[in-house]
Design a protein that fits this description.
Keywords: Membrane, Transmembrane, Transmembrane helix. InterPro entries: ATPase_put (IPR032820). The chain crosses the membrane at residues 21-37, 49-67. This is F0F1-ATPase subunit Ca2+/Mg2+ transporter. With 84 residues, this protein is an all-alpha fold. The chain is built from 2 helices and no strands. Helix 1 (2-43) runs antiparallel to helix 2. The longest helix is centred in the N-terminal third of the chain and has 42 residues, at 2-43. The radius of gyration is 19 Å and the shape is elongated. The mean pLDDT is 91.
Length: 84
């Protein structure tokens, strides 16, 4: 009975960790595109150049942070598996 509780608890923790990575990625991308749009409006460029440039920069940044975070999570899981 206790093993089932531990498995459920572990799976919820994993779900929480990975879902937070997804929300972090979406947040970075959203802020980048929103910021690019606001700058386009502020500088009155007449096109969406800053939206694309800053948005794609935010996309690259979010991919980088996601990969680094997943690397850390994977290392933590491997260390936990070795301890058990």
């Amino acid at each position: 009975m206790e093993d089932k509780k531990n498995n459920a608890s572990d799976s919820l923790r994993k779900y929480g960790k990975y879902s937070s990575v997804v929300f972090q990625m979406l947040f970075i991308i959203g802020i980048a595109f929103w910021g690019g749009h606001q700058l386009d409006l502020y500088f009155e460029t007449g096109s969406n150049v800053l939206v694309l440039v800053i948005g794609l920069g935010g996309l690259c940044l979010s991919l980088y942070t996601t990969l680094k975070r997943l690397e850390i999570l994977n290392k933590e899981e491997q260390d936990n598996a070795k301890q058990k």
